[in-house]
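Homework help board

Subject: predicted structure for assignment chain

Our instructor gave us this sequence and asked us to write out the predicted structure in token form, then describe one feature. I got the tokens but I'm not sure how to describe them. Can anyone check?
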Amino acid sequence: MFRFKARKAYKLQEALSRKVIWEGDLHGVRTVVGLDISYRGRLGIAAAALLTYPDMQLLKYSVAVDEVPIPYIPGLLAFREAPLMLAAYEALGVEADLIIVDGHGVTHPRGFGIASHVGVVLDKPSIGAAKKKLTGEVVSGIDGKEYLMVKGRKGAYIYRPKQNKAIYLSIGHRVSLEAIVNSAQTFFKGHTLPEPTYMADRISREVRRRYDKDAGG
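My token output:
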């Protein structure tokens, strides 16, 4: 019987956080993938949506569905969701220039949230896009913008695509905070979420509704 050991997972995150690269620009990015997951009971439905950049047109998508044996534990979301997200990404059959993940990157208690996890595993530039703060202190920069400070470093830019709606855009891997700030507006297309994760969320929910319909019918 599978038993998830949280203590080992914590130590692994601490070790892998040292592999995160906090620098990198987004010059030359032509495609971006959004990753998100929804649930139907223990069934996880992960979607990977490949979009053009910067015009954010959907090119293709893929879905990975499987039972998720690991329970939700705050701070250990990656162990629960990343395997299915990675499976959905691999199913695309193409390499994206940038990955945006629903969740945090370095703005995490051990500096290794799901966006960093995915970025390091794939060795791809990645950004976390989270709707809620997990850890850290909100600070205002001399530029008038808001940031999330973790362990003495700015790890996320707090972008507000709509009034009173904050999205925490955090460094995942191989992307600098400056690059995130300079590109943040290009990720959004009229929705509260960045367009890539908005599309991935929409796709995963649509697939879940099909399962609901089949189960009801």
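Reply (TA_rk): Your tokens look well-formed. For the description, you could write something like this. The chain has one domain: 6-216. That's the kind of observation they're looking for.
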